Amino acid sequence: MTAPIKELERVVVRFAGDSGDGMQATGDRFVEATAVFGNDLSTLPDFPAEIRAPAGTLAGVSSFQVHFSDHDILTPGDSPNVLVTMNPAGLKANLRDVQKGSIIIANSDTFTQGNLEKAGFESNPLEDGSLEGYQLYPIPMTSLTVEALKDSGVGKKDAERAKNMFALGVMSWLFHRPTDTTAGSIRKRFAKLPEEVIEANIAAFKAGINFGETTELFISSFSVKPASLKPGRYRNISGNAALAWGLIAAAHQAKLPLFYAGYPITPASDVLHELARYKHFGVRTFQAEDEIAAAGAVVGAAFSGNLSVTCTSGPGVDLKSETMGLAVSMELPLLIVDVQRGGPSTGLPTKTEQSDLLLAMYGRHGEAPMPIVAASTPADCFWAAIEAARIALKYRTPVFLMSDGFLANGSEPWLIPSIEDLPDIWVSFATEMNHDGEFWPFLRDQETLARPWAIPGTPGLQHRIGGLEKADGTGNISYDPDNHEKMTRLRAAKVAGIAKDIPDVEVDDPDGADLLVVGWGSTWGPIGAGVRRVRARGKKVAWAHLRHVNPFPRNFGKVLRSYRKVLVPEMNMGHLVKMIRAEFLVDAKPYNKVQGLPFKAAEVEAMLLELIDD
Amino acid sequence: MTESNGNKSEGNGHIEDAAAGTVAVQLTRKDFASDQEIRWCPGCGDYAVLAAVQGLMPELGVPREKIVFVSGIGCSSRFPYYMNTYGLHGIHGRAPALASGIALTRPDLQVWVVTGDGDALSIGGNHFIHTIRRNVNLKILLFNNEVYGLTKGQYSPTSRQGMITKSTPMGSLDRSFNPISLALGSEATFVARTLDVDRKHISEVLRAAASHKGSAMIEIYQNCNVFNDGAFDILTSKGGRAENQIRLVHGEKVIFGENKDKGIVFENGEAKIASISEVGEDRIAVHDAHREDPSWAFALSRLSQNPTGPTPMGVFRQVEAATYDDQMNQQLAAAQTKLGQGDLASLLNSGDTWEAPERRGSDAPVYAGPERRGRQPGE
Is B332 close to A280, i.e. CB distance below 8 A? Predict the structure, then answer.
């Protein structure tokens, strides 16, 4: 007999296990099926920096959380309704996030004396009653998988390794995921492996489905109907992929070749990997000898007429600082992408943080202002990349594009735009003399203050520029005191003037609130969810979220001053809040979290409620 | 927003169009001199190198607009300002990285790097070796004066051990780099050494470098008459020139000395100076710059560390190898042949996609924040 089906509006599932258990791959397969099924979704991969930490230890636990729903959602969810754990360490590391009443599915084969000790359990939690209050389902997944694959032709080791696909099968049955999609996706993921291994993984997946179907272990299964998103064609996309595609689209819209130089660094490397696949788009990717060389090559490529981009994380930004100063001084268009992670130093390489904002803002010697554009969701990385490129090209300036680990590895459904919807960001090269039969490389456009972009190869416009101060207009070396002050002010005015060319910050304030919550970057989802919860309680809160952090939108000061209380949640120790206080003398309050994890909706909600009632 | 794009009226946005219209004309040395006042110290060896480079340029037949000089920081790095070509005066040590960005994306340009012993071998050592290893199509002029000039006289990575400077009052402890050995160890395809004051030799070496496809490293001994005067006197003085300059000419026996009485023999993997009367002319080695194996060139480079005695001058090694930039362009072409010219719309619609139907009469509030993600906020 089949268990009854319970309909749910939204579910949070977390897969947890050893780094070697394939939890990220399992989560990815589940997400693909969920996306194609038409749910809205948001994901949070969380994995250690070590490729393979000692098996069975807490340090080696890798997890993947997905929140899916029949309506529009903003976050990967606060706490899992279902925790699937492949070993005791996965249970130990994740239990604190699981509320009583939730489902825990555990691979009971791994709850051996040795593994329990490694995870720090004194007795077996599957048997000692400590998990009372949870809906506990111990399933011997390893042995069931090995049994199911005994005639498959793969060895015991390969069979055991397929246990994650068994778990995926159980979950697919439990939530009525489309199984054909998953089988196809397993085939694609393991395409490079021998045919019998691929077949074994699919067989293990199907064994998991059959297990759910035939045993009467589960009281019910669940369905989550497709979400009613804005009509159109969707695909699921991660932040790093969206960012890479945004760069390709920006180059297309600027009619420029894309040059990308980088050095391997977590969590930014996937942008390099992704772009390296698109050589047929004319994309040149260059893995340089270090972060400095990547930045240098990008300056050279910008000088010679490319849409030029380097992408890194905090430690790499430090190393590129001097080169950014050169780009500011030479007034060349290029992008510095910072996929932020926990710092300082090596810090938390695989975890998220927003602690590079002041670095992006001020982290260069001399007066070296740079515009800053921030992406707010994984799919939004696509649009943020195009906007950053637009500003860089139009104003001939290096631009910071801020992402973070949460956006980079997280994913969500993306409404695929048509090419006609993309902005035209084309700018022209200089081809003519511009001053009495001479070419002056620093003769500025009166409106934008941008200088002409004359690329090598252009007859008659030969010019020499560099990091030394340049005379206004001619661009010749100048140590003149007044000229230096003038050029410093011009460079600042050029960046400040971008405020005229960006939209006002929108305020979401349907009820006329006293409290304004202000965010930037990836806190968009958690703040939005927190705001929604507060309003559901009948309380008032206003919300503004910044896409442009430097310069600020022109109405930002007015917006801030029109609220009695301002709260700025950030995954750092208070960067934007300092900028707001310094710039506008507004008594904005910080709300900080630096755990390498995004805010939970409940955390934001609690903080907002506290301030509202204050 | 498209109307207000800066400088749109100036011309075209395509590299090919902007760079079109190049006409080959007969130019002279003067055509390569910029209008900038030269600010090196009087008597500096850099003047001679500049004159040699400007003198060579017309015969190469490359239009000025197709040439880019890139430099780092140091006295020699002012060089680009004095050339009427495109020029980029970069930051300390990074010239090879800056130049790589130009060379990799613009195969139509001839790119020269001007650097010094501090710039290339100390702060920029990493870029120097890796650029050479990749065989990026660049000509690297390494002005070696064995001292930091611009910062007023500290010892450099090529200074002789024990050098007394302001930063080393009891003598420097560093052992010196041999730039030729270093370049050879970095898999260089073209390595040469010449001297600022020898106009004929420097022109020959630069001419050979200019025709080389790939990274060409030319070490130029250059006298700093303020902080390290006479460092190369042993090679330039009367008598010293013939006695101490071992001229390397491909295909010829390596013979030197006022009376052509000394030569190089190759023995047990080492190059050694021998008296021809003692060993006989038959044993004197013939210079083969085209040998695939770099051992011969390396052995020659070990004959002298700093020029304190007989020192090989000329092209040590000149071999053909695929350049990084050519191979990068070949990969792009191969990808286009295999997959067709990339189409943005197809890319965006690739992978698993699905169609979301018309909204079911939802009255969800429309949020106008991060636009275009096609979503409104919900829990």
Answer: yes
CB-nearest to B101 from A38, A298, A528 is A298
| Position B375 in a domain | no
- Residue B367: which of A282, A460, A508 has the nearest Cβ? A508
The shortest C-alpha distance from A330 to chain B (Å) reads 9
Q: Is residue B362 part of a domain?
A: no
B23 exposure class (CB count in 10 Å sphere: 0-12, 13-18, 19+): exposed
Q: Could you tell me the sign of the dihedral formed by the alpha carbons of B268, B270, B275, B280, in that order?
A: positive
Task: Render pLDDT for B152-210 as a digit per residue (tens, 0 to 9).
Answer: 999 999 999 999 999 999 999 999 999 999 999 999 999 999 999 999 999 999 999 99
Q: Is the pLDDT of residue A595 over 90?
A: yes
State the nearest Cα–Cα gap between A74 and chain B, in angstroms: 6
Domain that holds residue B103: 22-251+308-328
What strand order describes the sheet that includes A82-85?
A: A40-46, A61-69, A10-18, A82-85, A103-107, A135-139
Query: Chain A residue closest to B123 (CA)?
Result: A292
**B88, HSE (Cβ side, Cα atoms, 13 Å):** 36
Record the tokens describing residue A332, joined without a space. 């060349």
Contact A231 B356 (CB under 8 A): yes
Q: Are A287 and A312 in contact (CB under 8 A)?
A: no
Q: Would you state the structure tokens that stand for residue A33, as one six-digit string?
A: 């099926």
- Residue A50 is predicted with a pLDDT of 84
Taking contacts as CB-CB distances below 8 angstroms, the residues of chain A near B5 are 393-394, 424-428
Maximum Cα–Cα distance across chain A: 90
Total structural domains within chain B: 1
Strands (E), chain B: 67-71, 86-89, 110-116, 139-144, 190-195, 216-221, 245-248, 255-256, 262-267, 270-275, 311-318, 353-356
Among candidates B10, B36, B338 on the partner chain, residue whose Cβ is nearest the Cβ of A431? B10
Tokens 């099968």 locate to A169
pLDDT digits (tens, 9 = 90+) for B199-247: 999 999 999 999 999 999 999 999 999 999 999 999 999 989 999 999 9
B71 in a structural domain: yes
Paired with B369 in beta bridges are none
Q: Hey, what domains does chain A have and what are their CATH numbers?
A: 5-224 (3.40.920.10), 235-421 (3.40.50.970), 428-501 (no CATH), 507-613 (3.40.50.920)
A8, A245, A332, A428: which to substitute to probe chain B, counting the most B Cβ within 10 Å?
Answer: A428
Q: Which of A426, A431, A444 is nearest to B11 (CA)?
A: A431
How far is the alpha carbon of B2 from chain A, nearest alpha carbon, in Å?
6
**Residue B192 sits in a domain of what CATH number?**
3.40.50.970
The span from the CA of B295 to the CA of A372, in Å, is 52
Listing DSSP states for A407-469 in one string gives: HHH-EEEEEPPPGGGSPP---PPP-S--BTTB--TB---TTT-PPP---TT-TT---EEESS-
pLDDT at position B229 is 96
Please give the residue of chain A at the shortest CA–CA distance from B12. Answer: A428
Residues of B in contact with A294 (CB under 8 A): 97
Indicate the pLDDT class of residue A146, thresholds 50, 70 and 90. Answer: very high
Of B15, B84, B100, the CB nearest to A455: B15
DSSP assignment, residue A333? -
Number of neighbours of residue B288 by Cβ within 10 angstroms:
13
Length of chain A, in residues: 614
User: For residue range A385-402, what is the model confidence (pLDDT) as tens digits?
Assistant: 999 999 999 999 999 999
